[in-house]
Structure formats: structure tokens, C-alpha cells
Predict the structure.
Amino acid sequence: MSKLIIGDASGTVVRERELDRERIRIGRKPENEVQLDDLAVSNEHALVTTIRNDSFIQDLGSMNGVRVNGRLIKHHHLQDGDEITIGVFTLRYAHVPWVMPESSWVPPQTEALKQATIQAVAPNEGETLFKLDVSSELGITRDIADTQVEGQTPVDHPTTILGETRPLGAGFIRLVAGPGAGREAPLSRPVTTLGKPGLQTAVISRRSSGYFLTFVEGGSYPQINGVEVGATPHPLQNHDIIDLAGTRLEFFFR
């Protein structure tokens, strides 16, 4: 699994911290998963969120900020070798691809399926309104046990609604406005990226308890039903309306 390699002011590596849980807090308080003992570090300075093969760092409103490769950031999608500066400390992100346990292994997808994309095209040719990329960019080549393939029935997970346990159907998104309105795409991957890189992006992750939208980057947060979702993972409900990167999508179960 991926990890943070922590160096002090002299550049000496003092310890390593594996990203072995979804949320890792960084700060001066001892209750943080990564404690950095320096007065320039806020009590709760930053948060690293990891979803399978992707890790994101977020500034928690710190006094002195968070820099990645020398650039001041609020949110950042971490890449292998990125150097995070917090106070006098440097934390290098080392990416190690997540691998599904052997007991859950299924034959990998064909290359044709890996490269498949579903996209709605705006009036200006080539401008993507939204794009669901099924390529192997995220390094997930074995994590496809619940991928929907023609002729297969999606695996449902149980959920509790008003005290009653019901099966959770497969999640889909639908473009609800503009050219291509009505187009649908299944959320069959464990993690699906939406939006426009450099403008506003988010991911929808599929878990046993349902589907969650998590903000990745952009000048503002996505909205669900007209309300900004914030930086923490937001559970999606049937027929939620998502506004992201100038595009309106509907999330629904089938």
C-alpha cells in the first residue's frame, strides 16, 4: 500500500507511515495519525484521504498552509514522488498499487474493455461534458469483481432503509441537461472519476454501504441537490442531482 516517507528539517528520514486507512490526519496534536512536532504545524493541519489506488491531500484551514512540490494547495491528487511540505517537515508520497487479495481474483478485462469510454460531447467538438474512463490509469487491473459486463448480473450489497434491510441496486449516472441529455453510464468500477481535470473533479466510490461522492480538486465544491458537499465523502441517495464542472448529472439505482 502507498505511504508517506517523513523527513525532518535536515532531510533525514525520521519515519514512514502507511496509508492503511481511508483518512489519515496530519498535525501537531498527538492524536493525529501523523504527528509533526513543530510550532509551524497547526493542531490539525492536513488530511490525506485514500480510496483504493488514489490518495488526496487537503489543507484543513492551517495557519501556514500545505505545499506540494513547492506550490501552495488546498486540495491535491497525490502522484508518486510528490513532496509535501508542512512546517519544517517534508513528506514524500510513495505510491504502491493496491492489489485485490488472491481470494477475490477474477480474470482481467480485455484491453478493448479497459479502453472503453462513455462520454457526452458538447456543442464544440471535442469538449467533454463528462467522461467515465474505464482505462487502467488508476492501476486497478484486478479490482473488477463487481464490474458490470454484458450478460452478467451486477452484485448487490445489502443496505438498511428505515430499519429494513434491502438489496442495493447497481448505481448509474445520467446526463440531465445540454447536448447528450439522457445518456446513462453504470458506476460499475470501485472508483469512477467525474469532471474536468484542472477545473473541477470528484470521484464516486462504491462501497458495501453504498455510493459516495468525494471532492478531488477545483475552485469550489460540487453540489448535490443545490447544496455544496464539502471535502468529506458524501453518501449518494437515489435520484440525487450532482452539479459538477458545469455539468448536471442524476445519480440513481436500477
